[in-house]
Amino acid sequence: MFSIEDTPLVRKLGAFVSLSEAELRVLETLHKRRRRFIAGPELVHQGQSDQAAYILASGWACSFKMLKDGGRQIVDFQIPGDFLGLRSVLLHISDHGIEPITDMEVTEVSAADLLVAFERHPRLATAILWAASRDEAMVVEHLVDIGRRHAAERMAHFLLELGARLNLVGMGIKTGYACPLTQTHLADALGLTAIHVNRILRQLRERGLVTFQSGIVTFDSYNEMVDFAEFNPAYLNQGGPLLR
Amino acid sequence: MFSIEDTPLVRKLGAFVSLSEAELRVLETLHKRRRRFIAGPELVHQGQSDQAAYILASGWACSFKMLKDGGRQIVDFQIPGDFLGLRSVLLHISDHGIEPITDMEVTEVSAADLLVAFERHPRLATAILWAASRDEAMVVEHLVDIGRRHAAERMAHFLLELGARLNLVGMGIKTGYACPLTQTHLADALGLTAIHVNRILRQLRERGLVTFQSGIVTFDSYNEMVDFAEFNPAYLNQGGPLLR
DNA sequence: CGCCTAGTTGAGGTAAGTCAATTCACGTGG
DNA sequence: CCACGTGAATTGACTTACCTCAACTAGGCG
Fold this sequence. Notes:
- The first copy, chain A, is built from nine helices and ten strands.
- Chain A is α+β, with helices and mostly antiparallel strands.
- The first copy, chain A, has two domains: 130 residues, Sandwich (Jelly Rolls), CATH 2.60.120.10; 87 residues, Winged helix-like DNA-binding domain superfamily/Winged helix DNA-binding domain (Arc Repressor Mutant, subunit A).
- The first copy, chain A, has a four-stranded antiparallel β-sheet. A three-stranded antiparallel β-sheet of chain A has the order 4-3-6.
- In chain A, a hairpin with a 5-residue loop joins strand 3 and strand 4.
- In chain A, helix 6 packs across helix 8 and helix 7 crosses helix 8.
- Chain A is globular.
- The model of chain A has no long low-confidence stretch (mean pLDDT 88).
- The interface between A and B is large, with 51 and 51 residues.
- The structure holds a DNA duplex.
């Protein structure tokens, strides 16, 4: 497969559909503005609907929901190549917030452009549908994590999934990866408290499974981890393009 | 909006996109076979990939994931008009099981036909993308439920969401609805044990919020329920078609 | 009648939460 | 250079929401 450009979006959609020259050119025009955000303050506020989605070019982000009592549930983390706020744009509701975890760079994709592109190039719609389905599969796996796994398995599964995703975009190796998340991020994602996250991480480290210290995740015993967490990455990567 | 037929699929997609005559005709041809399943034994086994998705015409089903230790996480429930196994078909993986909760009737939609329809009628792809996004929004809300709400709020939120969904397809009224789920179903969906579900239901009943007995859910105090569960149905229904 | 499944209730255990104190890393300004 | 402040990580003591085990009831159906 050859590509006239190698943007995160092209790489992502190319995994699902073999893109033609014409389709690649359309994708090129979709990348309107390039924007930067600094870590920390939230980018999109809950309830505020937005007319554009983003594709993450560099950095990490997370999308979350807040509750009245101050609790926060992180729905998922975005790494380079992932969509930000696609669902919000499609459904015209932004019912979640987005936080840049690190400084990050995004390219903006307007909702209107996307819909026009769909009309002219149906395969792009199919590709996006696939990408959205993969995202949903991750949320589903996340749901199983929180609903039916104990804290340690939950953490192990989460760290493995993140590693596998980073691998797919060339940001990790089998033995570990750099990870800018705080224990509070982990807690809000896994439905735990930061304190308990700390204890669980120590437990996993002492068991010789995985070490997460000073921003580095190291798999001390990858195979045992996979076994312990019942991790099956089938939902993350399908071999080649599903549509030729 | 007029329709040459009023199937669950047409009703569902019509909520997102105003369908043309030509598009309606294509949808008609998509409904291949009509099949029936009886309650109980599971329909699609975990790991077994299938070449067709279904649209539920009547009855209830649920999709779930099993864990090695025998635990089960129900991901969502399907009521008439909902897709069954769409994600599996798109991603060519069936990583979850499906259980008919009641006897049910479905219409089959083959993966190949769907992809062809997308090529010829891009708006259909857009419509399905929207429907899939709505499903994802429900899973996200489910995630928040399990991750950050206590058992009672979780249950209240779940019963309200289900009520709102049934309302949309004309199967419930504001004061309650018929519900064939067992306490075990509720437990597996909400990440609890059946025993605890029982206690929580009693608690909600004694607080005068909601009564779930012998297959009937009755909202004893709808507004207080909504407040108690922080229920906001914005993600379920968007006013009219998003694409004209 | 007897069996089976779903629901109900009690007693006691445990995973995870809460509250509180301490340490550590890192910037920033005096 | 050092004092200081701030946010993250760490650890301990105690509480609690939910689980486990176990017994019992109620309804449906051959």
